[in-house]
């Protein structure tokens, strides 16, 4: 997700809706839903709406891994990290048993499982570094683009380019030392896998709380709603815990509808590959795009790709949320240092996500909630890369360790 400090929307007690953007986003939702239902099917259209809900929750909660991790490193405040761990924990309790069942109502269910090896380690470090320079991660890039950020539009463009380059190189990386995918549910059983995962998440949350209390003498609490009554539900901002719980519920809904958990970055590589084809680059000859899943996606409409449709929904959902909050404000000013950081960060995230089988959503959130060991490896490696990214940010005129 993205920078919960720099990208946080500004709210006022009095609601001033940005009418024109809200109407455009609302109309796009209706048209998109009807078009996808007509051209593909109702299930795909429902996933488009789930994406919209994710975008609204991400924006209203300003729910981010990038800024949350940086705030913990720089300020020793771990409120965002604890909200992330709770989100994954709630999803885990539902997802591991569902995946163990294998199907529900005739819908096969598969988890976000991936091998553990050099590819994951290197890719996750690159992603962690890139998200601090780029100012967001997979879902965070999408929701801040929806909110009108020109800088994140640059990050997204180079995220797409990096993802395409990653598809060209991934077969080589997979030849390096690696272990097969390890599922805690299959290895230890459902109950033990859930308990192990909850214990790991609880330990991370506990460490963040202990560090925060040692440095500040207290634990930062969720701020009270800034709008009266229930207005904050529509106009925001949402508490981090509340936004995290909504994201957990919608990830479970994604599993039930799509047959797999929420993911983000495959869509970026697909968009880039289709653009590359359009300008004469023969990506269809690359090994990655001849694997069954990618090949089918490349030869079909993007509206038939679940990840792409949900990504579109996230952008529109964030745009609608920003409009309802009265904070949809496209910003074109982009200093050269910030621009370079966005370019480098986007490339690193795109390439790293492809090597490590996902981003903070597909690998960390959905991976850990699926009981996949690679999700934990990704978490540790990406956090290490994030530390390096925080240290490098001041070189591009961005806030970091050095003010």
Please give a handful of descriptors for the protein shown.
403 residues; mainly alpha; two-stranded antiparallel sheet; 4 strands
Secondary structure: helix percent: 55-70%
Rg (C-alpha, Å): 20 Å
Poorly predicted ranges:
1-12
Major sheet: order of its strands?
A: 1-2
Number of strands: 4
The oligomerization state is single chain
Strand content: under 5%
C-alpha termini separation: 24 Å
How are helices and strands ordered from N to C?
HHHHEEEHHHEHHHHHHHHHH
Main sheet, how many strands, which sense, barrel?
2 strands, antiparallel
SS content category: mainly alpha
Helices, by number, come to: 17
Polypeptide structure, described:
α1 (19-39) packs antiparallel against α2 (42-61) and α2 (42-61) runs antiparallel to α11 (240-258). The chain has 403 residues and is mainly alpha-helical. It contains 17 helices and 4 strands. The model is unreliable at 1-12 (pLDDT under 50). Helices cover 67% and strands 2% of the residues. β1 (103-104) and β2 form a beta hairpin. The protein is globular, with a radius of gyration of 20 Å. The strands form 2 sheets. It has a two-stranded antiparallel sheet with strand order 1-2. The chain has helices at 19-39, 42-61, 65-75, 79-101, 118-134, 138-146, 150-173, 184-188, 190-216, 231-235, 240-258, 266-278, 292-298, 306-324, 336-355, 360-369, 373-392; strands at residues 103-104, 107-108, 116-117, 178-179.
How do the helices and strands line up, and which of them pair or pack?
Elements: H1 19-39, H2 42-61, H3 65-75, H4 79-101, E1 103-104, E2 107-108, E3 116-117, H5 118-134, H6 138-146, H7 150-173, E4 178-179, H8 184-188, H9 190-216, H10 231-235, H11 240-258, H12 266-278, H13 292-298, H14 306-324, H15 336-355, H16 360-369, H17 373-392
Antiparallel strand pairs: 1-2, 3-4
Helix pairs in contact: 1-2, 1-14, 2-6, 2-11, 2-14, 3-4, 3-17, 4-9, 4-11, 4-16, 5-15, 5-17, 6-7, 6-14, 7-12, 7-15, 12-14, 16-17
């Amino acid at each position: 997700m993205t920078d919960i400090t720099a990208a946080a929307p500004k709210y006022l007690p009095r609601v001033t809706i940005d009418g024109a953007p809200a109407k455009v986003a609302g109309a796009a939702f209706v048209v998109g839903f009807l078009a996808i239902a007509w051209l593909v099917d109702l299930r795909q259209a429902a996933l488009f709406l789930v994406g919209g809900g994710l975008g609204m929750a991400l924006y209203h909660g300003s729910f981010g891994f990038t800024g949350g991790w940086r705030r913990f490193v720089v300020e020793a405040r771990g409120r965002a990290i604890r909200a992330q761990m709770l989100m994954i924990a709630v999803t885990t309790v539902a997802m591991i048993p569902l995946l163990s069942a294998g199907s529900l109502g005739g819908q096969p269910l598969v988890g976000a499982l991936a091998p553990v090896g050099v590819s994951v380690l290197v890719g996750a470090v690159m992603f962690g570094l890139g998200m601090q320079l780029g100012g967001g991660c997979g879902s965070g890039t999408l929701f801040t683009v929806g909110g009108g950020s020109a800088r994140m539009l640059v990050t997204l463009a180079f995220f797409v380019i990096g993802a395409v380059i990653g598809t060209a190189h991934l077969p080589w990386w997979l030849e390096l030392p690696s272990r097969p995918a390890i599922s805690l549910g299959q290895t230890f059983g459902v109950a033990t896998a859930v308990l192990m995962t909850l214990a790991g998440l609880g330990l991370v949350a506990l460490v963040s709380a202990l560090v925060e209390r040692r440095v500040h003498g207290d634990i930062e609490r969720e701020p009270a709603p800034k709008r009266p009554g229930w207005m904050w539900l529509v106009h925001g901002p949402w508490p981090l815990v509340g936004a995290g719980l909504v994201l957990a519920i919608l990830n479970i809904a994604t599993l039930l509808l799509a047959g797999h958990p929420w993911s983000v970055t495959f869509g970026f590589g697909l968009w880039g590959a289709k653009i590359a084809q359009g300008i004469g680059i023969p990506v269809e000859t690359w090994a990655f795009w001849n694997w069954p899943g990618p090949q089918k996606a490349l030869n079909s409409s993007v509206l038939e790709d679940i990840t792409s449709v949900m990504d579109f929904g996230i952008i529109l959902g964030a745009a609608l949320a920003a409009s309802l909050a009265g904070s949809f404000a496209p910003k074109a000013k982009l200093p050269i240092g910030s621009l370079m950081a966005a370019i480098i960060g986007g490339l690193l995230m795109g390439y790293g996500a492809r090597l490590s089988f996902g981003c903070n959503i597909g690998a960390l959130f959905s991976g850990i909630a699926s009981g996949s060991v690679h999700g934990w490896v990704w978490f540790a490696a990406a956090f290490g890369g994030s530390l390096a990214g925080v240290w490098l940010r001041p070189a591009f005129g961005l806030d970091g360790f050095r003010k």
